[in-house]
Structure formats: structure tokens, C-alpha cells
Structure prediction request, 135 residues.
Amino acid sequence: MKKILALTVAMAMGQMLALSAHAQAIGTDDKAAARAERKKEGSEAARGPQMGEGQPIPEAKPKTSAQQRSAARSSRRAVGAEAAKGPQLGEGDPIPHAEPKVSGADRSSARKARRTAAAQANKSGQIKSKGETSY
Prediction:
């Protein structure tokens, strides 16, 4: 088991050393010349269109005449005027209609009627107790 682990570590270290040795520039002791070469390549690359830019110069569109613009505007105006006459989204009625007031006597009589009906249903056995199922 230790041999397999040692072999794996040795292979990984060998690859790391090989990659680092391969990445070093051989024979370019003149740093100024290498820098000038990179600068030249960078300036040439910056002149052209960049990645994701698309066409930097848009194509020219034909100009529309005043008559074409007014015809398009009048058709849009008719549609817009028709849409503005109807109800708009989210408009609704800003002032809700008030419900008619119910007098206190009417409320108490309705409450008494509900209570008597519930009491009669309970006495006749229609309303089951909590432990029994009512349905």
C-alpha cells in the first residue's frame, strides 16, 4: 500500500516539475525584447473587434420620410386612444362602495336566531361531541 502511495506521489511530482520546466522560456534572456514583442501583439489585437462586441460600426438604415412617420403615428394614435378609453390595468374603483349599515337590533336578533338553531341541533343530537365523528 505504501508503494502505491509513493508511486502516485512520485508521478504527480514528476508532472509538476515537467510542466514548470516546460513553461519557462528558453533562450529569451532579453526581457526588453520579449516585452516589446508582447506589446506589439497586444496593440494589434486591440485594434480589431473584441470578443462579444459584435459589429462596431452599425449598418446605415434608410431614412423615413415625414409622411411615413405621420402615417405610422396616426395609426398608433388611434389604437392608443381606443385603449385609453377602456379600464386600465390595476385601476379598479378607487373608492369602494359602502355596504348598507345594519342596525344593532337586527344583528342581535340574527345572532339569537343562530344560537337557538345551534342549541336545538345540539339537543337533538345532530351536533356530535368532540370525540365522535360528525361526518
Notes: The helical segments are 2-23, 31-47, 66-85, 104-124. The radius of gyration is 44 Å.
